[in-house]
Structure formats: structure tokens, C-alpha cells
């Protein structure tokens, strides 16, 4: 793989067209390089202290580590090749452009619902977070086709940890939307939307019963 495609200084993929696998492989290579340097320093230190049977079998340990890393790299490369093949097929059929337009539309809906209107920088920050989640999370990307705009906003808010503006959501969804950390990750089907009002009422705590009058 050509490592030049992903600059070393870039820590996170922010553009949907960048392949997150390149970023992950770069991080893995950095970890391996650091581990090798640490292992060599440890070997030199132990050689000065330990002798004979007390010495760990460093060549065997390094061989096992190298084999595990090679398998991880090979598996990631295969996943990347399959991803690029699927992408080429989508481009040939025109699906790629349709998906990109729909993804941008969903991103802007989420930005309008979550970002603070008075802060332009907050809108850009939320936009980058949503785009990044759509790149990293294939399930969320697929949910663009299966969820309504309100449901999609709620799912995005859960993933990025930012609650949407309660005034944007329809009645009955406010209580559920603002508790982004307390709600499970599983998405609801679009057919469940007519029952959201009942579900929100059922999820509320009932007031404590009044004490009986003992007089």
C-alpha cells in the first residue's frame, strides 16, 4: 500500500472520500514500530542483567508478534480491496453519486437539528462529526435509507454525543432525544414512528402516590 496517500500528520479522516483503512493501517504501523523499538531496548537491558534460563525467549515472542501483525495487515488489505471493488461498482452504476447526494442531504439535516444557530463554527464542527461518523459507521450510512429524518437525527445525536435542538423534533420525541447517553444504540424502524408519542409517555417516571390521610 502507498503510505503517501495518507499524511503522517493527519490523525483522523475528515473527508468522506478518504479511506479510513489507510488511516487505521498507518496507526497500526506506528504501534508496531514503537513496539519493536521498545522490545529491542528491553532485550538489551535484560541481557545485561539476566543470564541462562532466566532469559525470556525474545525471538519467539517477536516471531509471534510479527505473524499476528502480518495477519492483521493482510485482513485489513483484503477488506479494503473489497470496499474499493464495491465502490467501483457503485460508480459504474451511478449509485455512488446518488449516495453522496443523499449523504450530504442527511448531514445538513443533522447539522440544522443539532448545531447551535448562533455559532457558525459549531455548525462546521457538527458537520465534520456527522460526515466522519457516516464514513466510519456503515450501519449509520445504511440507516439513511431506512429511517425518517427525525429518527436519523436521533441516531446521529447518540453516536456523536450531542443532543438535538428540542424545538426541531416533533412532539413526543423530545424526552427521548435529549438523553443521548441513556438510549440504546439499536435503531427503530420507520413503521414505529406513529407510536413514538405513546412510547415517550411510557418511558416517563410516574409521580409518587400521595400518602393516605390518616386523620
Structural key phrases:
0% strand, elongated
Describe this structure as you would to a colleague.
Residues 185-215 are annotated as: Disordered. There is one protein chain. The chain contains eight helices and no strands. Among the domains are: 16-49 and 57-93; 96-167, no CATH class. Helix 3 (95-114) crosses helix 4 (120-136), helix 3 (95-114) crosses helix 6 and helix 4 packs across helix 5 (138-146). It has helices at 20-49, 58-93, 95-114, 120-136, 138-146, 149-160, 174-178, 196-202. The protein has 215 residues and is an all-alpha fold. The longest helix is centred in the middle third of the chain and has 36 residues, at 58-93. The chain is elongated and about 70 Å long.
Quick gist of this model?
This protein is 63% helix and 0% strand.
Overall pLDDT confidence: 70
Helix content class: 55-70%
SS content category:
mainly alpha
How far apart are the first and last residues' alpha carbons, in Å?
84 Å
Shape: elongated
What's the total count of β strands? 0
Q: How is the main sheet built?
A: none
Strand content: under 5%
- Low-confidence spans: 1-10, 173-209
Region (Disordered): 185-215
Amino acid at each position: 500500500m502507498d503510505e503517501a496517500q495518507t499524511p503522517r500528520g493527519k490523525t483522523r479522516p475528515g473527508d468522506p472520500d478518504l479511506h479510513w483503512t489507510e488511516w487505521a493501517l498507518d496507526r497500526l504501523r506506528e504501534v508496531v514500530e514503537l513496539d519493536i523499538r521498545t522490545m529491542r531496548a528491553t532485550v538489551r537491558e535484560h541481557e545485561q542483567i539476566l543470564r541462562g534460563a532466566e532469559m525470556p525467549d525474545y525471538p519467539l515472542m517477536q516471531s509471534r508478534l510479527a505473524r499476528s501483525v502480518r495477519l492483521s495487515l493482510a485482513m485489513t488489505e483484503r477488506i479494503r480491496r473489497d470496499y474499493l471493488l464495491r465502490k467501483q461498482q457503485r460508480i459504474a452504476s451511478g449509485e455512488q453519486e446518488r449516495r453522496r447526494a443523499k449523504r450530504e442531504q442527511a448531514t445538513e439535516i443533522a447539522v440544522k437539528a443539532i448545531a447551535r444557530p448562533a455559532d457558525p463554527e459549531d455548525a462546521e464542527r457538527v458537520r465534520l462529526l456527522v460526515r466522519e461518523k457516516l464514513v466510519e459507521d456503515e450501519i449509520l450510512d445504511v440507516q439513511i435509507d431506512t429511517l425518517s429524518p427525525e429518527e436519523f437525527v436521533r441516531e446521529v445525536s447518540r453516536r456523536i454525543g450531542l443532543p438535538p435542538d428540542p424545538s426541531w423534533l416533533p412532539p413526543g420525541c423530545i424526552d427521548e432525544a435529549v438523553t443521548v447517553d441513556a438510549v440504546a444504540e439499536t435503531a427503530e424502524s420507520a413503521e414505529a414512528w406513529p407510536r413514538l408519542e405513546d412510547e415517550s409517555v411510557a418511558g416517563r417516571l410516574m409521580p409518587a402516590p400521595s400518602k393516605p390521610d390518616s386523620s
